[in-house]
Amino acid sequence: MRKLVLLGAGYGNMRILLRLLNKELPADLEITLIDRTPFHSLKTEFYALAAGTSPDSDVRVPLPTHERLHVVEGEIEEIQLEEKCVYLANGEAIRYDELVIGLGCEDNYHDVPGAEEFTHSIQTIGKSRETYKKLQGLGGGATVGIVGAGLSGIELASELRESRPDLKIKLFDRGPRILKDFPERLSNFVKDWFDKHEVEVISNSNITKVEENVLYNHEDKIPVDAVVWTAGIQPVRNVRAMDVEKERGRIVLNQYHQIPQYENVYVVGDIAALPFAPSAQLAEEQAEQIVRVLRLVWNNEPLPKEMPEIKLKGFMGSLGKKQGFAYLADRTVTGRIARLLKSGVLWMYKWHNG
């Protein structure tokens, strides 16, 4: 049997399974999926789990079942490309003919002293659960600092405001305005929501050090009762250890999403060096193309001279459960309609994935 191994049950590999596990699955193919959890986690919704506005069950989707899909639950220790083998922390070795690496990212602390030790995370479902316990365990009037005002930081701050109206929330933004790379109308809408709901946005911030219950913004010493870090990501440790070409820590690929020296190895999602910001949407678009390439390879057919250009539709974000914002096809959408759009996309995703 030909062995396809998928590392990580993220958005990219879930789309690959959705496309492969049908009547067109080659008769001689066996698929192994390796992940630390026995389910697919909706990483884009971890902010709601951490804030306490969505239960754990709402951010999980069951993995697909199929007679030729084997799911292995475990921690990946090492990826040996020359050996065509993946080693797990328990010592198990899993060999492959083709490999898709979709292991995702973890927090990037940018060498800020104390950041890793004294902040909380929403990068994994396990860490989001721990962050939920910390935030919901705070007393009334406690101060929460959220470092990083990208999409994750904005959504966490807004959901936490709805969950805990008694907390003081400080959102630290490195830029001069919220979502500075997008139209000012979008920035103003989000900032007005925060002003109305008493979330303090601290612009032009630079967190230089973190201590227990203390944040240093430039030289200012700010007392806090909890800190959540949403200020950047980097590929996970075992991807960073791989001896392949990288750009800003992400793996350089050819147009077929393969590692150039190892054309039987594909990379999907946040760890791929692509000219786009990492997102679930991007991972799914990559996955569609990877499936197309795999089918051509399995049928011994030539690959196209050029792959289609990946086109992203934009992004959507929530401001609590009633308001939201979106940037779609170069158009800004705000308010209730944007929130309904995001809820609808999430519902459709869950429906398609079982």
Features:
oxidoreductase activity; 6-stranded mixed beta sheet; FAD/NAD(P)-binding domain; alpha/beta; 354 residues; 25 strands; NADH-Q_oxidoreductase; single chain
Question: How would you describe this structure to a colleague?
Answer:
The chain has helices spanning 11-20, 46-51, 115-118, 125-136, 151-163, 184-196, 237-240, 280-298, 336-352; strands spanning 2-7, 29-35, 39-41, 60-62, 69-73, 76-80, 85-88, 93-95, 98-101, 105-107, 143-147, 168-172, 199-202, 207-211, 214-217, 220-223, 226-229, 233-235, 246-247, 250-251, 258-259, 262-267, 314-319, 323-328, 331-335. By secondary structure, it is α/β, with parallel strands linked by helices. It has two domains: 2-36 and 74-106 and 234-298, FAD/NAD(P)-binding domain (3-Layer(bba) Sandwich), CATH 3.50.50.60; 109-231, FAD/NAD(P)-binding domain. The protein has a six-stranded mixed β-sheet with strand order 5-2-1-9-22-21, with no helix packed on it. The longest helix is centred in the C-terminal third of the chain and has 19 residues, at 280-298. The protein is globular, with a radius of gyration of 21 Å. The mean pLDDT is 96. It is an enzyme of class 1 (oxidoreductase).
Strand order of the largest sheet: 5-2-1-9-22-21
Q: How many domains make up the coordinates? A: 2
Structural class: alpha/beta
- Second rung of CATH, namely the architecture of the largest domain: 3-Layer(bba) Sandwich
* Low-pLDDT regions: none
Residue share in helices? 25-40%
Give a quick account of the main beta sheet: strands, pairing sense, barrel closure: 6 strands, mixed
Q: Which radius of gyration do the C-alpha atoms yield?
A: 21 Å
* The named CATH superfamily of the largest domain: FAD/NAD(P)-binding domain
From the spread of the alpha carbons, the general shape counts as globular
Number of helices: 9
What integer is the average pLDDT? 96
How many extended strands?
A: 25
- The CATH class of the largest domain is Alpha Beta
Distance between the termini: 27 Å
Portion in beta strands: 25-35%
**CATH fold-type name of the largest domain:** FAD/NAD(P)-binding domain
